Amino acid sequence: MDVESLVTIDPSTGAESPAGQVLDSATLQSQWPASGSCAAGESCPFCTSRALLCSDPHRAAFLRLLRQYELATGKRWSFRDLFSLVSFLLAGSPLSGDKPVTPCEWAARLLQLESQPGSRNESLRLRAPFLLVSALYQHALFGHWPRISRRSLRADLKELKLDSGTTAEPTLLGLHYFLSGGKALSIPATLEPQLAGISESLDPALASPDDDVEVSSRTVIKFREIDVAFSHSVREGLQFIRKYRCLVPLEIDLLQRLATADDVLASPAVRRSRPAVADRVQGLVREFACRLVRRSLGVRTAITRDAAILREFQQVIDGEEQLLYDAVKQVGGLLNTKDGFEIVLNTTFGEPYPPIARRVVLTTSKQKVKPRESGGDGRPNTPMRFLTVGSGGSAQAIPLTYELFRSIRELQSGMLPAALPRTVNALLDTTRARLAGRLVRDEEALDGASITIGTRDESIVRELGRFLVRKGDEQ
């Protein structure tokens, strides 16, 4: 159970994954109120999430997203984490100080509070539309919104002097309280690291604009089209995406409120006196609306950040030879130089290299990188592929992590090696150090190697078991 994933289908039997069975049990219609009959009616985010997750495409995309998290982080979903995640997405987790109520009753109270202007908890009333949308499973899964200064946006709204008789001011104040205040739902301590990792690694709001997203059974658009539409105005973005009928009523209602607020901010009466302030608030509103739509569509179709690379990484784990060969070739290029495999002899692992004039460099032949066989003898395949660097007794294993694979794909797309992440550089440096420690003690590997001291023309070579001095112009 520690090796096999709980979110993938067993290829040998084709049986449903444990995560799929948990989700099917949690969304069973007989265990939920009939559609629209709960305390919150059609506006209940939890019943809406159940209706979405009980069938495809949402169900299949959700399970693929869980698998993407495993690939991106190298961690496995445990049963405890799966149970916590599904219950959190379908029932929420109210703050400990709240009176115990059912999820549907919690949503009904927010709806009732929203219709009562002048209530004692005014900030909660204004946040209610945002809280209901954030309780939908796709937004609870990616619940990290950009935090803003409590004073800055409130000061901008006061400076704009919006008419209190319009719906723009309550919407903008609700956005202010939502982004600057605490969350209405507390995240279980056992689940918080996973949700933080999902937002950091897979957030559809950070997906490439060129990624394709399926908005209907016959229509595929790019995220770029959504970005362009919402950059013009929230209303234009809403009109663009609404025709595909891929958003739920709660999201449509909130986007309509944001569109009205955006229209007011674009009006000459508001922009005439404070154009810079209006631009700043308007940009925040449009970015929030675009992020909301991106997340909703991305979760619906499992199009997340680096989704294409994650699919290729899954293929490598499954044994795709061409992608694995490309990875092997690129890792070999990162470990070796043009002349061979270089080792700095007068420094230890973790220390900075001395100046070039004082550097003693051992250069051996290039070390070959080969894929290591995984699984076998009835054992399950390992969750990660390993490569072997070197040969014989000096060979070293290097894990083909997702970060290393993503860096390889980005290098092939034109990224410079100097831009490699620190974790990838640390992995490569560790492999070089371990391999170097074996090579300097291997008589056979040292045969034909050379030692260069500083910038001198002479080099010390080892041939036929002896050390010789050779000048730079000698062959």
Give the SSE layout:
Layout: H1 18-26, H2 45-53, H3 58-73, H4 79-91, H5 103-114, H6 122-134, H7 137-141, H8 150-160, H9 168-180, H10 192-202, E1 212-214, E2 220-222, H11 223-232, H12 234-242, H13 249-266, H14 268-271, H15 275-301, H16 307-317, H17 321-335, E3 341-344, E4 360-364, E5 369-371, E6 386-389, E7 396-399, H18 402-412, H19 422-439, H20 443-446, E8 450-453, E9 459-463, E10 466-470
Antiparallel strand pairs: 1-2, 3-4, 4-8, 5-6, 6-7, 8-9, 9-10
Helix pairs in contact: 1-4, 3-10, 5-6, 6-9, 6-13, 8-9, 8-15, 9-13, 11-12, 11-15, 12-13, 13-15
Topology as H/E string? HHHHHHHHHHEEHHHHHHHEEEEEHHHEEE
By DSSP, the count of extended strands is: 10
Number of helices: 20
What percent strand?
Answer: 5-15%
Radius of gyration: 29 Å
Mean pLDDT: 86
Percentage of residues assigned to helices: 40-55%
Description:
With 475 residues, the chain is an alpha+beta fold. The chain has 20 helices and 10 strands. The strands form 3 sheets. Strands 3-4-8-9-10 form a 5-stranded antiparallel β-sheet. Helix 12 runs antiparallel to helix 13. The longest helix is centred in the middle third of the chain and has 27 residues, at 275-301. The chain is elongated. The N and C termini lie far apart (58 Å). 34% of the residues are buried. The mean pLDDT is 86.
